[in-house]
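Retro notes - structure team

What went well: the batch runner handled both jobs without manual restarts.
What didn't: labels got mixed up in the shared folder, which is why I'm recording both outputs here explicitly, each with its sequence directly above its tokens.

Job 1
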Amino acid sequence: MSVQSAMPPVLSAITTALEDTGLREQCGSCGEAVDLADLRQVWAQIPDPRDRRGRRHPLVVMFALVQAALVSGAMSYAAIRHWIARAPQEVLEQLGARYDRRTGRFQAPHPDTVCRTIAQVNAAQVDAAYAAHRAAQIPELYDDPDELIPMTVDGKTQRGTATTGHAAQHRLGVQLATDAIVIAQIDVGSKSNEIKAFQPLLDQISCLKNVVISADRLHTQRAHARYLHRREAFYVFPVGGNQPGLFDQLDALAWKDVPIEWATYDRGHGRIEIRTIQVLPAPAGTRFPHVKQVFLIERHVYDLAGKPLSSVAVLGVTSLPATLAGPRRLAELARGEWSIENKDHYVRDVTLGEDRCRVRTAATPSILTTMRSYAIAALRLLNHTNIAEGTRWARDDFQNPLIALGLTI
């Protein structure tokens, strides 16, 4: 039995999606046939599920309209339909809409046609296309080839997709930890789990050299560590009860004799938070692949009067040698995983209304999630640190979403 045939159906679809879109080969050949920086060309690689007969509007135009609507803060299909119906002629022209010679006007596809068509598209192929596009932009953000690129892997449940008798859909994503820009996402099937989705997720990124992956304890897996090493990437993983032997080994170290080498002090929101880190070279016989350093992070929270509120201690391992990441850098990389809730999940749930969205038709929830994350990243790349404010800016002028997406002529 082949490895691919042994995979759950959702993950098998991910492993073939790059070939289906033609993007994996283009990444490997420096994008000679497809300009991965051009969003239109990326959309053009997504197979159109419709019969060739009777197609009046290109799939690329439909994706462009929906993506622009999401940048403008559309939270539901009703809001997306409204944006498409109101799009002016100059916007339709720039997006490549069909020109009707009889009326002398550009025609937008009917909003219902857009929604119905998007629902039929293969979500894995959409994920692969968007991931290839974002991965191609990483060199623009990190122009030093030797610079470490921190990324965080984390899962999120789409609560709005839950129905009677069916659990809510779950997705796994990876984002740039510092910039909170999602690079890739995939569905985690109901009969699978995040552990099995980890490698297919990162397979969507053509190059992981010098990438540092952080994640929660679930992903502290030996297979993950070996996979990242093969791809010239590093890891920073917390250690918990799912690795009892490793946990006991690290817990038995003489941490009381190890000096605190870096600490942070934060005061705000009615509390004081102090974080400290202690680091040791990996002891001989450490029961984890490619580990170079081990660490202990402690987080103490007090009220403004100095009364203790909580204390948390986290043991961890990393494949980063001390020459690449000292205590301060390790503390920053480990903290990246904790920040994803505020930087991505909260914005998607609250600002763009993902949890309130009740769209459940076929692949639509997964596709809209990918496009929402892209909308957030597009606004962040324009220096909109407040995404709610960014969507208001996008609504001020129909040209603004096109500027954010790089679709202006």
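Job 2
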Amino acid sequence: MTRPNTRSAWWRLGRLITGVLAAVGFVGACDLQNIAELEPGVSTEADVREKFGQPEAVWEGEEGAQIYEYNRQPEGVVNYMVTIGADGVLVKVSQVLTEENFAKVQPGMPLEQVRRLLGKPRKVQTFPLNGETHQDWRFQAKGQTEPMIFSVAFDKDLRVIKSGTMPDPDLQKR
């Protein structure tokens, strides 16, 4: 019976982990590069779709604008809302997982309004016994190095009961 080469196995595992981490970072770097290549008032809807692909959702905006949702959950720490004017030209690109937007989430707000504000959550949990649904978004707080979770609890009518931030429990398990 031959003994496996543990050093080689650890080396391969290290390379695999490095590759996965690089791929996750590459996605973020690609987003930043794509955003830098788009110019509000000049770039078109076709330019946005070429850079970002098919949006997760399309929302109606003011004055005939459309808002494209580009979700980077569950592993990312951003969600983008890209506003395209009625004329088909880029108006703005916004990263919506911000503490300023979290402050807009208030008790009584309907789930659809929260989704439109923050984009698709990374995690949804339903608790049948108390009728609550919890939704979580991973984000990067200003000045922090570790991702955090913004969590919203909805009642049985899918209206906000409460919201708050906490450390990412997935990171606590490591």
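One thing worth noting from job 2: The CA atoms of residues 123 and 136 lie 5 Å apart.
We'll revisit the folder naming next retro.
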